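Slide 14.
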Amino acid sequence: MMKRIGLAALLALTATPALAQTPPATLGARYVPAPWWMQDPVIASTGRVRVEIAANRGAFSASFLAIDRSAAESSRKAADQVRALSQALAAYGVDAVRVETSLTTRPLYEQYRDADGDLVDNERADKIQRYETEATVSLTLRDMVVLERVYATVVASQPTSISQVNFSLQPENTWVTNLAAEAVRDARTRAVAAARDAGASLGAVRVIDPTGRACQTDVLAGWPSYQASAQPQTTVDEMVVTGSRVVRRGRAGEPEGLMSPTEEAIEAARLALQPPLRVLTDSACVVYSLN
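Slide 15: predicted structure.
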């Protein structure tokens, strides 16, 4: 009777170690029990895949400055400079180009020289000489087909400055799924070759681990890891493009900065912009029994 009770207690203990997340033996012990899927001969194979895909997102910004004695007038002038540009960019559609515009106004104070001869702003409300407003247009491109023309349109609008073009890759769900499937297939290809070279053949699948942790040494030796598993790494290949300002005068009778860039100005400002290639990688661990 006592043997049956002891056996039942032992089975209860062995049924719950995964839930308790406790090590299979005392840390530092010479021998530890192997995982359940290593009770028979197995082969652990890590599949790896790598693919190069052109960046599918681009982002940059342009700034326009306006200065006036009135904060309201300064803001109005800055808004006028970007209004025509915003209308021209809206023609591409929100699915291709997303535009965000912001205005920042700050006072410009009278200056005086201190004891060391350095110019210092006299930051008092009654010492404000003018107001400077910066209108910033931030663009996110989701269609690389219109990249060159959008960039040329912004350059032809005579901004005070243009930021660098930053490219990125937003993987689609189908890409991620296909990479995971290819990693598993690569693991099988490697396992078949290794088993054949060792004079054996593959049996049934014991474990499929998309994180790759099951193939690492500490897991194979019986020690579970409680740290976060490493995620597939993406190598960044970045291309930076810096734009220059194009000098243009407004049409007669029309304030400068209010008209949309002409077709001639856009074509003259076009640059060759080729999205860089980005690298996507993935891996998977598959454990097979051996025959």
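Speaker note: Residues 1-21, 224-257 have pLDDT under 50 and may be disordered.
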